Amino acid sequence: MVRPSTFVKIPKRRIGTLIGPNATTKELIESKLGIQLDIDSESGDVTIKLSPEETDPSRLFRAKETVLAIGRGFSPEKARKLLDDEEAMLIIVDLRNFVGKSESDIKRVCGRIIGREGKTRRLIEELTDTYVSVYGHTVSIIGPIEETEIARQAVEMLIRGRLHTSVYRFLHSKRRKLKKKKMELWKKPYEKA
Questions:
Q1: In angstroms, rounded to a whole number, what is the distance separating the alpha carbons of residues 18 and 20?
Q2: Whole-angstrom Cα distance, residue 170 to residue 184?
Q3: pLDDT tens for residues 70-127?
Q4: Which of 21, 128, 9 is nearest to 72 (CA)?
Q5: How far apart are CA 124 and CA 146, in angstroms?
Q6: Angle made by CA atoms 143, 147, 153, in degrees to the nearest 5
Q7: Which residues touch 165 (CB under 8 Å, ≥6 apart)?
Q8: In what order do the strands lie in the sheet with 131-135?
Q9: pTM over the 0.85 mark
């Protein structure tokens, strides 16, 4: 019987990070999800196969997200959130879709997203409880669904040239709304009918 599999390509310079020291990262992903990673270090091709004893094909997609996250610049520790948290997701924003293939434009936009001494990226992460990686021509975000979407919106605002202060206001406003929403969830079980 053919085992279900999927394929992903990552930059060759990220293969070592995916494998990890003494193959620890690779083995962790394999054991946690019941999959097998076949890594071609010459091309950056990664084939992900379901282990013979594993029956849940959705594990292939979780493994693919984790491998992609490491390939897009996240450390294995940050990418692990995709393994440990069922609510976590990965979004990848390709800057070429916004500014074309001009390397100087991509670098300029990356600089806007990172900010002076990393301030803007750090603020996006803190206010949305996400991880953000700016790598090559992509910006990747790991976090809970709603928070990841807010971080993506903030990144796209920066790409489109919005002022940093207006993006910060947007993030603070969304943060307040999220906190209020979470507080309402806690209140509901205690309210009397």
A1: 6
A2: 21
A3: 999 999 999 999 999 989 999 999 999 999 999 999 999 999 999 999 999 999 999 9
A4: 9
A5: 14
A6: 110
A7: none
A8: 88-94, 138-144, 131-135
A9: yes
Query: Mind listing the pLDDT tens digit for each residue in 10-46?
Result: 999 999 999 999 999 999 999 999 999 999 999 999 9
Q: Which two tokens stand for residue 12?
A: 């060759």
Is residue 140 within a helix (H) or strand (E), and if so which, with residue range?
A: strand 138-144
Q: What are the angstrom distances between the C-alpha of 96 and each of 7, 103, 189?
A: 23, 9, 47
Query: What stretches of the chain show up as alpha helix (H) in DSSP?
Result: 15-19, 24-33, 58-71, 76-79, 81-84, 96-99, 103-114, 119-128, 145-159, 164-187
Look up tokens 């991880």; give the residue.
Answer: 131
Q: To 5 degrees, how large is the angle CA 100–CA 106–CA 110?
A: 140
Judge contact between 94 and 155, C-beta under 8 A: no
Structural domains in the chain, CATH included, are 5-76 (3.30.1370.10), 88-187 (3.30.1370.10)
Q: How many Å is the maximal CA-CA distance in the chain?
A: 64
Whether 83 contacts 62, CB under 8 Å: yes
